[in-house]
Amino acid sequence: MKCISNVVIASILLLFAGCGSGAKKESAVNGALGKDGEIKLMVLAPGHFHASLLQKNDLSLLNDSTIALISDSVYVYAPSGAELEQYLANIDQYNHRSENPTQWKERVYTGTDFLEKMLADKKGNVVVLAGNNRDKTRYIFESVKAGIHVLSDKPMAVNKENFHLLEQAYDSARAHHVLIYDMMTERYDALNIIERKLLHHQELFGKLETGTSDNPAIYMESVHHFYKEVSGNPLIRPAWYYDVEQQGEGIADVTTHLIDLVNWKCFPEQVINYLKDVDVVDATHWPTELSLADFARSTGMDAFPDYLGKYIKDSKLQVYANGTIYYRVKDVNVALKVVWNYQAPQGGGDTFTAYIKGSRATLKTVQDKSHQFIKQLYIEKGNKTDAVAFETALNQAMTEIQNDYPQVSAKAVSGKEGVYLIDIPVEIREPHEAHFGYVGKQFFNYLIGQDLPEWENSNTLAKYFITTTAVEKAKENK
User: Fold this and answer.
1) Of 450, 404, 367, the residue nearest 149 (C-alpha)
2) Is residue 450's pLDDT more than 80?
3) What is the spatial distance between Cα 92 and Cα 77, in angstroms, rounded to a whole number?
4) At residue 318, what are phi and psi to the nearest 5 degrees?
5) Binning pLDDT at 50, 70 and 90, where does residue 35 land?
6) CA angle 314, 319, 322 (to 5 degrees)
């Protein structure tokens, strides 16, 4: 690829059909041989807009010399209500847009026994999960037990009970020769891809340090906001979003992306066994307080539902959305922090701060007001690193990166010796929604080839071991 914009075009064209590599490629999906419409999607209880993003691409673009392996009929099993209506509205919008409309045919079942009906009908071989997290692990387990592949939004487990069921689900998936795949979209962000390349340029970055609990080698801090306005209208969240038993605590939710980035960047394609390679040292959590007025603005409801009653103190809803996790992976010390404020200050937005320390340099990511809330990547020379050698290595690394990203450059930061901005122009960065296309393409590649690497499974389990253990430790520390 020459630049990100070219990748976007290729991804749109190949997202669903390209993974089949043509009609003659042998497939293990239901024992078929690359048949038209061979992969049949089911969507179960779509309570989050991520469910619809996987269907945003255009099937008509795939009707060239290849076979469209994805059937345009999608079977939806869900309770009736606003969440289902929003999902269907999104699909309808994709189908009726002026440019590259999609051709999805949604077959909807809304009985209260929607899970049992899906398992009994078995009209598809892949189920997409994105919604309320309380029952998601059970949905995963029941699906793979029935021989159905699972493509799931995060988090796949929000507590220790969920985690143990997820372990059983992976055992069942192996026995039934089906796949479980977590939608880790951050791997497809240009900044993360470039940082990963720099991190493994040994002459530049050196060796990943191990750090200590007090001075970790890796640190990531992510700040989000419950109440947001989009085009002047409030982003309406379901009431269950504020129930940590249904949505999950902050350290069981947002940190899934952070832990995945640690594994993917620092230990690429390495198996991480949570029993041998991981030690969760400590964790904390604390609540964000919402008044009834805050809750009403965010959800459109004029009262707290009964199931949130146990979280109300002095008329304020206590949402345990904030926390820290301190852990070691393969002897490297990592610290994570996630914060959910109710609303950003005027002119503010979500922020992100991170660093990864090497023996020769440190990579830093910053997203704040001074950067117009756009993530920017920096590399800083180590104190003991020779300046000439560092600059030579940086130039060499950038030359290699420019083979794929010709518009990316390294710019010295004025007044900060040995600090360089890795300048990734905004115009070649893709929005978060586009990353779901890459996740889909990767999953269907694994599905057709039946070659999901073991590190994907082991690292996913390690990730949820860390988050669910952290939730337990945080509760103990209250």
Assistant:
1) 450
2) yes
3) 17
4) -100, 110
5) low
6) 125
Compute the half-sphere exposure of residue 190: CA atoms within 13 Å on the CB side of its CA: 29
196, part of any domain: yes
What is the three-class DSSP state of 20?
helix
Q: Are residue 238 and residue 139 in the same domain, yes or no?
A: no
Q: CA separation (Å) from 237 to 83, 184, 350? A: 10, 22, 17
The domain tally of the chain equals: 2
Average pLDDT over every residue of 131-157:
97
Is the same domain home to 256 and 132? no
Query: Is there a domain that residue 100 lies in?
Result: yes
Task: For residue range 414-437, list pLDDT tens digits in order.
Answer: 999 999 999 999 998 998 888 998
Q: Is the pLDDT of residue 64 over 90?
A: no
> What pLDDT is attached to residue 58?
54
Instruction: Confirm if 323 and 250 have CB atoms less than 8 A apart.
Output: yes
Give the pLDDT confidence score for residue 381 in this predicted structure: 98
| Listed residue (26, 43, 24, 70) closest to 448, CA to CA | 26
- Would the pLDDT of 11 be above 50? no
For 81-88, what is the mean pLDDT? 94
**121 with 42: CB under 8 angstroms?**
no
**148 and 278: one domain?**
no
- Crossing angle of helices 190-199 and 387-402, rounded to 10°: 130
- Rounded CA separation 441/11 (Å): 8
125 and 205 assigned to the same domain: no
Pair 67, 100: CB distance under 8 Å: no
Predicted pLDDT of residue 364: 98
CA distance 212 to 215: 5
* 279 found inside a domain: yes
For 25, counting Cβ atoms within 10 Å of its Cβ (0-12 exposed, 13-18 middle, 19+ buried), the class is: middle
Alpha helices in 74-159 (DSSP H): 82-96, 114-121, 136-145
